[in-house]
Amino acid sequence: MYARFAQALLPYDIFSQPVSIFCVEEYCQSEYFQPRCLKNEVIFMRTAIYGRMRIGKCISAEEVAAHKTHVGDDPRYLGCSEDVLRILDEKCSGKVSCDVRVIEISDENIRPCFPGLKEYLEASFDCINSKYLLTHKYR
Question: Which of 33, 60, 105, 139 has its CA 20 to 30 A from that of 1?
């Protein structure tokens, strides 16, 4: 599994609950991002980055090596990304589930990298109690 663990910088999140460690997973261009929560919970997007951040599940070392023979070590080919939290927040946050084709993110004119290798999505989310969200929404 290609996942990284991250922790928010603040000791409490916006709902005054202790911040937990959450898993950041990779979703390749041909895949769907499909967060799912329990019936009484809704999605709360934590992070969403689109680009070619590093070699991993979606980009192999062999692909990068082959590409480097043509372009060198230009960081606009590997190590390039853009924050797409706003897009996934609109599509998923507050819902029990959602389906987003990763390739459709580029339809939003998000092109953080030069053409060549395929981009991918790194995203994380939490499921929060929908009752808690409704009672604390306007604080």
Answer: 105
Q: Which residues contact 13 (CB under 8 A, 6 or more apart)?
A: 19
Rg (CA), the chain: 17
Distance, CA of 129 to CA of 16 (rounded, Å): 13
Closest C-alpha to 1, from 29, 25, 28: 25
For the chain (139 residues), the mean pLDDT of every run of 10, in chain order, is: 38 48 85 94 95 92 84 78 96 96 89 86 92 52
Euclidean distance between CA atoms 115 and 130, whole angstroms: 41
* pTM, 2 dp: 0.77
Reading phi first (left if > 0) and then psi (alpha if -120 to 50, else beta), residue 17 is in beta
The whole-number pLDDT of residue 67 equals 80
Q: 80 Cβ partners below 8 Å, 6+ apart?
A: 51, 52, 53, 112, 113, 114
